Amino acid sequence: MYRNHSEKLPQPKSCTKHSLPEPGTTDWSRDGRLPDSRPRPGYCFRCGENGHLASSCRDAPDPTKVAEKRRKLRERQA
């Protein structure tokens, strides 16, 4: 009925929590997946300028600039 106080009780097993890395230590994409190892395009497919996507582009199409940027991107991805 009474326990012997010299008897040791089993200790709970430690558990590890899965946690996200510290901010700024890993480059995560917006959806939480690790980035692809290949360089990604960072330019508009309509006008060829950096800083926005074709869906929000207000500039005139520039197929020559887009083709040149696409060629350079393929070289970096190879």
TrEMBL record:
Keywords: Metal-binding, Zinc, Zinc-finger. Residues 1-41, 55-78 are annotated as: Disordered. This is CCHC-type domain-containing protein. Residues 68-78 have a biased composition (Basic residues). Residues 44-59 form the CCHC-type domain. Signal peptide: none annotated. It comes from the Eukaryota. Pfam families: zf-CCHC. Residues 1-10, 28-39 have a biased composition (Basic and acidic residues). GO terms for molecular function: zinc ion binding. InterPro entries: Znf_CCHC (IPR001878), Znf_CCHC_sf (IPR036875).
